[in-house]
Amino acid sequence: MNNLLVMPVLIPLCTAVILMFLKEKVLLQRRISAFSGILNLVLACVLVTRIHEEGIQTLQMGGWTPPYGIVFVGDMFAALLVLTASVVSLGILLYSFTSIGAEREKFFYYTFFHFLLVGVYGSFLTGDIFNLFVFFEVMLISSYALISLGGTRLQLRETSKYLLINIVSSTLFVAAVAYLYAAVGTLNMAHLSQRIHEAGQGGVLNVIAVLFLTVFALKAGLFLFFWLPGSYSAPPAAVRALFGALLTKVGLYAIIRTFTLIFAEDPDVTNGWIAWMAAATMILGALGAVAYNDIPRILNYNVIVSVGFVAFGLSAGTPDALDGAVFYLLHDMLGKALMFILGGLLIAAAGTDRLERMGGLIQRYPLLGWSFFALALALAGIPPFSGFPGKVLIIRGGLDAGMLTLSLIGLGSSLLVLYSLIKVFRLAFWGNAPGTEPPKVKLKGGTAVAAGFLVLVILMGLGAERVNTYVSQAGDVLGSPKLYIEAVLKE
Amino acid sequence: MEWMMAVAVGVLFTVGVYLILSKTLLRIVLGTSLLTHGVHLLLLTMAGLKKGAAPVLGGKADAYVDPLPQALILTSIVISFGVTAFFFVLAYRAYQAHGTDEMDNIREEEQ
């Protein structure tokens, strides 16, 4: 029993409710938001150290022992994701202070921001598949609001599409939960895992697994990503950063959790599907990143590529690959937040999001330019940045598992990612600006946040050894569901 | 009893999907609403339609119903109400902004 586990959900929830009453007081809203973000960060650190020392923590709501009642489970994987999410969200929060505009701030931007965090943290920490659905919905409803906030025609159109896709996938989620409950008779993840282990994973459970995979793949942008590039282009950069860094990662978390813990009995079949989807995602995402000429789309396709890469790590399934998937997921949350913030600053500096109308920015914004260059290297997985250790682990795991083609696709997609970002760097920062130069804008706050993220990305790469002690603890639980089951269902 | 529920779920799913595939935004919203109702019935049926007393501690009955699906349905219905309401407002705003609720026209105008 550990009440600490529920705090990452409670703090943003209370903050959001308080902020609702402070509609006009923008400055106060910012202060409260920042305070709540810092508080969450500290708590997440405490949580990670405690799990590191004492093992998996559980919290049984109202004292109802599992499999009855609702549990929160904090294993290392979830805790690391909560920690990274709190770092990322704090950074994006600071970035929104300077970029989001008073209009949005007055219309409950920070409220929705914190409600979104409730959903994200809750999805990571819950140990019950129906609550996963509920937290998904909390997260999604806030994301609908954030995407449409501002109400331009483009936003309204993209929100309708995004909303429709997500309603259909949520409907399928409930259907999948219903079938699972009919087949196995429980909803607690540990208990599900135990029962499926006892009964074996036959045809029916495989069908249910496909249904879950479809649902989570839609949310994560794994293969079923057709909605993502358009929808994520509509909102402003801060919201885009939040979505790119957190939303798809929650979908990935759900895929990793369900397929290492619940549907783990028939890995040849399930990992086979995930491997194919990962391959298609990496190829199509990389092609998209190379093909487009407007910055939001290039960045959005980069999100898709990394989703495919993490899924490849999961499908390889060796201990190395699982560690790598966790490591790369953590790196990717930081990296994608940095990428969208830099992209937002770049668009603000150039006054347009079309590459062909940019050029020569390096003279006026040298820091921004070189940060972008460093980011390109980091996302492609070049040492000393944080992308490297995760990528090495995943590729090594993939080769160990005999997945040569997929490893090659992974490496090739990294190359295309590098190409697409260097293309942005080359066209936007070098050469001469076509036409009149836009007036110089102040980017101070945003650049500071971006620099902070960049330092973190480098530190995570240099201190990979140290990060790895935590990551491998997370990978251990993913590799052997028994640890998770024993922690939750212990007497 | 279960077969009747199965038919009802099937009809709701069919009509829901048909409406979602149509062109006007209003029909799409109604379609999602029907689809979620179908899935709620599915949730209730999947646990088995048992005949028994309400699961209250201290009651004396031979059989009790499973309370869990009802708790799940309640949560799910509340969520779908909220989302549908949001979708209606969004559709109305889109209609105002674009002057039409035909999906084809909404798309063309942006290009």
Automatic annotation (TrEMBL), chain A:
Domain NADH:quinone oxidoreductase/Mrp antiporter transmembrane: 128-416
One Pfam family this sequence matches: Proton_antipo_M
Entry EC no(s): 1.6.5.3
InterPro entries xrefs: CPA3_Na-H_Antiporter_D (IPR050586), NADH_UbQ_OxRdtase (IPR003918), ND/Mrp_TM (IPR001750)
Compartment(s) of residence: Cell membrane; Membrane
Gene Ontology CC: plasma membrane
Keyword Transmembrane helix included in the entry's annotation: yes
BP GO terms, sorted: ATP synthesis coupled electron transport
Primary location class: membrane
Family: Belongs to the CPA3 antiporters (TC 2.A.63) subunit D family.
Protein name: Monovalent cation/H+ antiporter subunit D
UniProtKB/TrEMBL annotation, chain B:
Pfam families: Oxidored_q2 (PF00420)
GO cellular component terms listed in the entry, alphabetical order: plasma membrane
Membrane topology according to the record: Multi-pass membrane protein
The keyword Transmembrane helix belongs to this UniProt entry's keyword annotation: yes
Localisation: Cell membrane
Keywords attached to this entry: Cell membrane, Membrane, Transmembrane, Transmembrane helix
Keyword Cell membrane in annotation: yes
Superkingdom, natural source: Bacteria
Transmembrane feature ranges: 6-21, 28-49, 69-92
Main location: membrane
Membership in a protein family: Belongs to the CPA3 antiporters (TC 2.A.63) subunit C family.
PANTHER family recorded: ANTIPORTER SUBUNIT MNHC2-RELATED
Protein name: Monovalent cation/H+ antiporter subunit C
